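Exam review. A common question shows you a sequence with its structure tokens and asks you to describe the fold in words. Practice with the pair below. Do the first one on your own.
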Amino acid sequence: MSINDSKLLRIISTFSQKDWKEFSYYLKSPYFVRGRDYTNLYQYIYKAYKSNARIDSKIFSNIISKIILNENIDKSSLQSRLYELTTLAVNFLKQKLSEKNELERNYYILRHFSDYLLFKDFDAAYNINFDDITTSELTIEERQIISNILPYKISRELLHKRYNTAFDLFHKRSLLEISRILESVCYEGIESYKLKSMNAEQGFNPINEIINNIDLQKIMKDIIKTNSPVFSRLILYYYLYEIIVNDKGKEYLGKLESLYFNPNSNHASDLKEYFSILIKECYQLKINQGDDSHIKPLFRMYINELINGKINNRIILHREQIFDNYVATGLKAEEFEFVRNFINDNIDSLPKDKREEVYILSMVRLYFAIKEYKKALNVIENRKKRKIQNGLILRFKMRLFYELSMLEEAFLEVDRIKHFIKNNKIMRSDEKKKTLLFITHYLKLLKLKTSPELKTYDDFIVGLNKSKVMIPSGDWLKLKAEELKR
């Protein structure tokens, strides 16, 4: 039995104190356990949890050893029992989570009443007020459930010859479905645009054909005029579509933010998470294309998430990429004090094996942005790990030597890095290529610095502009050349 890969371990490590208590009741129910007794096995695990306030692989391994020793059970039999307990833990979570969704439970009971012609009970259980439906407050699953419930209600109205009511419900369900379809059109249009921006081959895309053959702007103009809450989610997607695809940030950005960040809005959990990611991705795409007007809105989103607790730091911040995004965006927004505090407050949330490298890179970027080059170099030089495997840090180091006019050290560092890359088997191949490409142009810049020639400046800048591949720190190289030319 592989303890570290135990599914049971992964599941119970997510349990709260309340979950443990409710799981013990679940295991005592004959309906769920089908006559088997799991209380003894549960007690071994729960006692370890109470003593340590957690369950990890080492603690779990000790639990297994105790059970084998005290209960006179072989590993094979114990593995079978643990497998059964795992299945029960999964089913417990399913029931627990389904209990939270009253709409889903109502759907199943309404369908049951309808299938068995219990119309009186159906009427008593049906409690959907379509006029109160605000789609941005519903998850995708909840919208689908409502859409699935309505045909049963429509059939009920038709049976009683209440044709006007049936038609009204049919019309409202159609609006719900149309909203969902147009939402997909906007979303897929954004994704298609992103792929096109990355020069990805898409082939035939029906969404593009739909967008090209309908007047989406006119349709949405009429939809927005209805002021119907059914279209609230769609309108958010449409505004984002216009900002990203049609470059209408000035017209729609304020509208989007006023809706999405409205404190009175109670957006569905999946929309908050999914749509927030999408907005940030699209803002970042525009920033990468040179549109700095999206830096402040992106930074505000990060701040909003931190202040309002819309992200779970324990889960999110251990991912280095997310950490880096906060730092990079804060620097672009010139919120240097925020970046410094963010690094110091959250660096311990990262895995130990990644912590020093991320800290070095983050602090170097901060000091470089505020032109404290000596401090940036000291951060690199004072590291605990002697070998740097991060190509970006190596490239920063070369840039720092240049900014500090340490040209002799710069040439020596280039030779050292080239030799290091040649013999290095750990650094990723793409990082090696980026660093060597940077070195090619960096050496030209160093030669310009030491042997200035006007024609050489122009040739260097033209070469950077005409490059078919993205040169790492290309803007910095160009800036330094232009400074020399002046």
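Now try the second one, then compare your answer with the model answer below.
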Amino acid sequence: MGVISLILYGVVLLTSLPVGYFLAWLCKDEIIYRKWMFVIFYAFVAGFIWAFILLDNLPVLLCFAYMTIVTAVSIFKGKDKKFLKE
């Protein structure tokens, strides 16, 4: 695997942070009920671990990593009361 492809994978994973903030901003009323967000988060973490250990498929691993980061950002921004009042 080349250095350029690793840099591109890192850039793609970094784009999950603004996407998570944007989804948290769009779905402020759903984030208040975080019970299901935690279920989704743990499902993505389990999928990430499954893809890392059992599969040798990098696109599936990156997909689970991306969705895990997006969901984590949404959950943690949901705890910020100033963010939810805007």
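Model answer, second protein: Helices lie at 3-14, 16-26, 28-31, 35-53, 58-78, 81-85. The chain is about 85% helix and 0% strand. Full marks require stating both points clearly.
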